[in-house]
Amino acid sequence: MTVAQFEDKYGAFYKTHTTSRGLKYRFLHVPAAAPHDTTLLWLHGFPSSIYEWRHQLDHFHAKGYGLVAPDMLGYGGTDKPTDAALYTHNAMARDVLDIIESLHPAKKPVAIAHDWGGALLGRIVDLYKDHFAAFAFFGVGYMPPNPAPFDLDAVLAYLKSTTGKEIFAYWDFMASDGADKVIEQNFESMLDLLHPADMPGVWGDVLMQRGQIEVFLTQHKRVPRATYITDEGFDAMRANLAGGLRAPLNWYAATVRGHNNADDLSLATQPPTTVAQPVFYAACQRDPVSSPAVGLPSLRALAADLTVAEFAAGHWVYLELPDALNAELDRWLESKVLTA
Description:
Mean pLDDT: 95
Number of domains: 2
Distance between the termini: 33 Å
CATH architecture of the largest domain: 3-Layer(aba) Sandwich
Strand order of the largest sheet: 1-2-4-3-5-6-7-8
CATH class of the largest domain: Alpha Beta
CATH superfamily of the largest domain: Alpha/Beta hydrolase fold, catalytic domain
């Protein structure tokens, strides 16, 4: 489906809502048509868009599910504040609940997320789990609140000692001043880097070694791009970020600069979060930064009813294997949610 076709089909369903802290969000809202009246909430990550959910939105729209898909803070038609302190997980979780409550749903929705959307979904679970019927995490699992102040150097040292790689080394660049301009000036290289044909190799050599992402971009390096990124998809990614990268990069900056520390500490002093609702996890076996080995332990501690579906996919499973992912999510919804 091209961008034009997507807009023709869904353009009339866009809405806006100003949240309780005064930020305007744009979101897609398609009312449920099936008798079960179940709505699915889709939370994208970095640097994604509502359009990237097209395979999932089309599949579940055809089955009569309601759909709510926001442009996350910093993206698309949503406000793009440049202050990283506005991008805390607690505050954005409240934003999402404000959007849901503005729709006055008759039934609790199912929340589904990927990448940084998954980190935000974890905080939604911590704070507002009773407002949702079920939760689905793609790749990135549940991240419990951390009582210790965030220290990227300490995190990378720990990852190096336990996995042999500084898995989140690229966060150092993403949270740095001027990273937005470097990416914008080298966008083709950045898209190659985000979606390489050889994800384990390229991400291991570049994203997981401090300083290498800057070298890759400023030297205009290119690598073969994954086949699931068509020319149309590439153009859509460029258009989605036409407003610039400074705001989206604040999802990294908020964490690296410690803006989540106080909220994490407060939540960490409470009993660990557990949920009785069904939880789905898309375990992506070829994802170097969000491996099942990292994602599963916290999900098993969180969920009494956990369904794990394994995929021979990298980080972007919803684009790489959309039919397989949709089928597994469909089965889970029908067996665990619609029967509840």
